[in-house]
Amino acid sequence: MQRLSEAQRIAFFSVLLNLVVTAAKGVLAFLTGSTALWAETLHSLSDLAASSATWVGIRLARLKSKTFPWGLYKVENLVSLLIAGVVFFAGYEIFREGVLGRRQVELTNLSVAIPGLGVIIAAIFLFSWFEKRKGEEFNSPALKADALHLRADSVSTLVVLVSLLGAWMGHSFLEKIATIVVILFLVRAGGEIMVDALRGLLDASVDHATLDKIRETIARDPRVSSVKQVMARNSGSVIFVVAEITLRSYSLKEAHAISEEIEEAVKEAVPGIERVTIHYEPEEKDYYLTVAVPLAGLRGEISEHFGSAPYLALLKVDRRTREVKEQITLPNPFLREEKGKGMKLAHFLMERGVDVVLTRESLEEKGPSYLFEAAGVLYCTITHRDLAAVIEDLEELVGREEERAEVRGTGTGREG
């Protein structure tokens, strides 16, 4: 809401600037008798109408009702499309007056008009730079479009200034050359504004960088097993996100709370997001589970420590029979780390899809235990001294831990 309020103030200042600029151009046109300057005054009047529409569009964007429960954010896109039309019209107007116009008029008071136009150009350019920066900060297509339009206006005013300088120096042909350059600039600016507005109106996806950032933010949560799909679209200056994710087995209440936390994390990571809709489902368990046991040596001695264990045994266990179908031994990649070995090893095991961790060292109230609990990984303190004994008791050890988690249910989806 605060972002929209500041955007409204900036758009209102744009209206005031255009009002002052239009009046100043009208006075200078009256003093010089320049038809090009009169045309530029009419051009500024169209700018004034477009800036007013921008301000009105941003004010309407915040309104919600029973008929429009999602808000009127696309009004900004409609306003941007209107501004694109004004830019194209201005290009035609300049072409008609500056290139096709043949009327010769005796100009007066050039010593006043030339510096006056210089001040006007500087004021317009500086404000357009400020408005463009704020438009990018607020992700407001209306502010960005108005900034581009103002910049086009400063260049079109420069055309008039060049024509006056040319008349003062006796080189009137400079006006036609500058006019052609400005027309090309206006066509490009209008095209960019129009494309951005149409993308918003047609619900085109946001850019790939933003999508990747949203996906990475969701996947970073250890309780998320996988991110199936992320879709995001612009609507005016805001973004709507829909994500389909898989959570490790959690109750409906827990899954609901997790999705809320993910929504807040996404909103914090990507500015301008209005709504995040999370559809979640439980992780599909395959026929096997992976059990990790820290080892002191390659002969199967179980380590007294978790993070400082030289080796790790990973057991692929049949869920139904509890038989070990595959066994591999890996070196601890963080053994030589000075700090955070336990947490790093916990992350490493989670990345490898470990379901159960069996250790002689108690992990209660330690960093790895909190990480495992958040990710739905079962962990258990054992008294066994060698891996062979652990394998013999796997059915009892794993079954006991799974019974503790059996009360957990699953959820379906929510919006936030």
From TrEMBL:
Gene3D superfamilies: Cation efflux protein transmembrane domain, Cation efflux protein, cytoplasmic domain, Dinitrogenase iron-molybdenum cofactor biosynthesis domain
Ranges where the Cation efflux protein cytoplasmic domain occurs: 207-283
Ranges for domain Dinitrogenase iron-molybdenum cofactor biosynthesis: 300-392
One GO CC term, this protein: membrane
Lipid bilayer topology: Multi-pass membrane protein
Transmembrane segments: 12-39, 78-95, 107-130
Domain (Cation efflux protein transmembrane): residue spans on this chain: 12-202
Record-level Gene Ontology MF annotations: monoatomic cation transmembrane transporter activity
Source organism, top-level taxon: Bacteria
Location of this chain's protein in the cell: Membrane
Keyword Transmembrane helix: yes
Keyword annotations of the record: Membrane, Transmembrane, Transmembrane helix, Transport
InterPro entries the record matches: Cation_efflux (IPR002524), Cation_efflux_CTD (IPR027470), Cation_efflux_CTD_sf (IPR036837), Cation_efflux_TM (IPR058533), Cation_efflux_TMD_sf (IPR027469), CDF_Transporter (IPR050291), Di-Nase_FeMo-co_biosynth (IPR003731), DiNase_FeMo-co_biosyn_sf (IPR036105)
NCBIfam families for the chain: CDF
Family the entry assigns: Belongs to the cation diffusion facilitator (CDF) transporter (TC 2.A.4) family.
PANTHER family linked to this entry: MITOCHONDRIAL METAL TRANSPORTER 1-RELATED
Name of protein: Cation diffusion facilitator family transporter
Organism field: Ammonifex degensii (strain DSM 10501 / KC4)
